[in-house]
Amino acid sequence: MVISRRRWLSITISGLGVSTRPLDSLTAAQSVSSDVQGRISRTIRVYEGQGFHRTGTTVDQASADWLSGQVRQLGLVAAQEPFQISRVDPVTSVLIAGSRRLEGLPLFDGAFTDSGGVRGRLGVLASDAEIGVTDVVPNAAAAGALGEARRANRHRAIVCVTRGGRPGLCPSNADLFLQPFGPPVLQVTSTEASWLNDLAQRDADAQLVAHVIRTPARSVNVTSMIGGTEPSLPPLIVMTPRSGWYGCASERGGGIACWLEVMRALRAIRPRRTIAFVASSGHELGHLGINAFVDRRPGVVSTAVGWMHFGANIGAAAEAGNRLQASDDMFDDMLSREMSSSLLNVDQRVPRGTIPGGEAEVVHRGGGRYVSIIGNNALFHNPEDRGPQAIDSGVITKFCTAFTSLARKLANG
Question: What pTM does this model have?
Answer without folding.
Answer: 0.91
